Amino acid sequence: MTDPLLAELGWTPFFSAQVSAEEARNCRPVRVMAVHRGMIAVAGAGLERMIPSRLPEADGEEDRPTVGDWLLVERDSLAPARILARASLFKRRAPGDDRRLQLIAANVDKLFIVTSCNQDFSLARLERYLVLAREVGVMPVVVLTKIDLADDPERLRDAARALQPGLEVEMVDARDPASVARLAARCGKGETVALLGSSGVGKSTLVNTMRGSDSIATQAVRKTDGKGRHTTTVREMHRLDHGGWLLDTPGMREFRMTQATAGLAEVFDDLMILASECRFSDCTHGAEPGCAIQAAIAQGTLTPARLQRWHKLSAEDADTTGSLAGRRSRAGRPGTRT
Question: Which segments show compositional bias classed as Low complexity (predicted)?
């Protein structure tokens, strides 16, 4: 039987099935609640503690714990033993470093893609986050904040909804408990909802209001350009009154995807279907005769901007896939440094 305290933290049969009888005797499961430099805050049944983040034989970035992870720790010393397999993992290519991955969050049940109704609103950025969510297999909800800053926030809501059939979009005043109540209702007991978005879009304010607390510092956007400033600096999980968890993340000025072929196919399924109808299988969707995509643009059922965004993300995915394949090939050759 699952310990109710572990169930509140998000422990499910998916994780318990990974623990052997010997590990159950010698170790205890804990969840990573926050990540600091060299240390992690963990919680388990009757346990809340800061412990070192280093695990045995942790070679690559994905071998290191991130917020939301479930770990097994030694029962007495609390030394980390291993990370349990993740139900989901959000990651990106580290800014300024094509070779390194940066883990964002693990074991997320839903994703709130938060953007504000000012200069931050960007269909291209929303599509990028949607591709990430679909690739990971987590249900996304677009949350539009600072609706008082837009003359016509409904227009932005409709533009977001048009990105993908059935996409859920919520407009909220992040400072108003009544306005964000429907978001809190989406985070059930033991469930984890992650918030992703740029700096200054109101993620910290949203977390504070949903928790009924002002413990997280917030800052106003700059009036000159509408850009936000970082307030959240630590990826951290926050408990809601009814038992769910909000996972706040620092604002991201740059978000470069890792492999996202499946996510691209789902978010841009309309273009994938059109591409299959082109006369030539290697059509570049430019000036070739019989191009179904160009025909859709001419008919007004597809915009050139959406085609351009698809091309950009597809090229980025191909570059990432090729780079990863090259690194794996070099790693497999004896005497090759990677």
Answer: 321-338
